[in-house]
Amino acid sequence: MASAKPAQVIEVFADVTCPFTHVGLASLAEQLRRRGPHVGIWVRSWPLEWVNGRPMDPHAAFEHAMELRDQVAPGSFKTLDASMFPPTTIPALALSVKAYKVGMDVGQALSFEVRNWLFEQGRNVADPDTLKELATKFDLDAPDPDDYATVVAEWKEGRERGVQGSPHFFCGGTNAFCPSMDISSNDDGSDMTIERTMGRLAEFLDGCLIPRD
Question: Does a structural domain hold residue 27?
Answer without folding.
Answer: yes
